[in-house]
């Protein structure tokens, strides 16, 4: 996996301990780009630390069911995605405008006891995400695009179809998953899909359910 000018080929290229950014509803996937507007002091310090080190930050969601822990330190989901700081800019009012490029998913092993204001965790990477082979060969691209077009039409939205046609299957699936308007549980399901084919199928199923629900709600308003 190439992220910026750094190549990650095996688990040995991934640090065991990383700072983590818990953010509900946020989905970063390998190869994807996530812009972030950072303003909390603890996360400003986290970005400073990452810039001085290996530039890696773990994006992870707080748990969204059951015992979620303290409000200021919620329990975390079991799986997140590692991102490399691909761009960085400072605003005039003390914020950082950054972009993370997805490197690989990781499984949370344990949270570390640290003195930093931001949280840090021990992780194990999903080594399959670091492989160079084409992961999108089994994706049903036609079905994915059919449902995507239905969703756009139903919501009166437009797409840059030239860019869509040029995109590889893995880029297309991951970009649509990250852009999808679904909640934390659905985003986590997309993240934890075992492979790209399963992620595409999950995205199609979620979109078809949303379309069916919208049609049902529209029918009820006419009654």
Descriptive overview:
- The protein has 223 residues and is an alpha+beta fold.
- 35% of the residues lie in helices and 26% in strands.
- It is built from six helices and ten strands, in the order E-E-E-E-H-E-E-E-E-E-E-H-H-H-H-H.
- The chain has helices spanning 41-52, 141-154, 161-166, 169-179, 184-192, 196-222; strands spanning 2-3, 6-7, 17-22, 33-38, 56-60, 69-70, 73-74, 79-90, 96-111, 120-125.
- Strands 3-5-8-9-10 form a five-stranded mixed barrel. It has a two-stranded antiparallel sheet with strand order 1-2. A two-stranded antiparallel ribbon has the order 6-7.
- Helix 2 packs parallel to helix 6, helix 4 packs across helix 6 and helix 5 packs antiparallel against helix 6.
- 31% of the residues are buried.
- The model has no long low-confidence stretch (mean pLDDT 89).
Q: Taking all residues together, what is the mean pLDDT?
A: 89
Report the sheet with the most strands, covering strand number, pairing sense and barrel closure: 5 strands, mixed, barrel
**Number of helices, where a helix is a run of at least 4 consecutive DSSP H or I residues:** 6
**Beta fraction:** 25-35%
Instruction: Estimate the global geometry from the Cα principal axes.
Output: globular
Radius of gyration computed on alpha carbons: 18 Å
Oligomer state equals single chain
Number of strands: 10
Biggest sheet, spatial arrangement of strands: 3-5-8-9-10
Stretches with pLDDT under 50, minimum 5 residues: none
> What is the helix fraction of residues, given as a range?
25-40%
Report how far the terminal alpha carbons are from each other.
Answer: 53 Å
Please identify the structural class as seen in this structure: alpha+beta
Order of helices and strands: EEEEHEEEEEEHHHHH
